[in-house]
Design a protein that fits this description.
mainly alpha; 2 helices; about 0% strand; elongated
Length: about 45
């Protein structure tokens, strides 16, 4: 599969340790947000 311009850009940016750290933390925060949303939906349907 051919890489998109965004894929190429992200790959380049991830070579920067500061960016890579922020990117990883953002992904972790997103995972938590999705878990909270799922739990809220589960509680509201009871």
């Amino acid at each position: 599969m051919k890489k998109t311009n965004f894929d190429q850009y992200l790959e380049e940016q991830l070579n920067d340790p500061e960016f890579a750290g922020r990117f990883e933390r953002a992904g972790e925060a997103w995972d938590i947000a999705l878990q909270l949303a799922a739990l809220r939906q589960k509680v509201s349907t009871r």
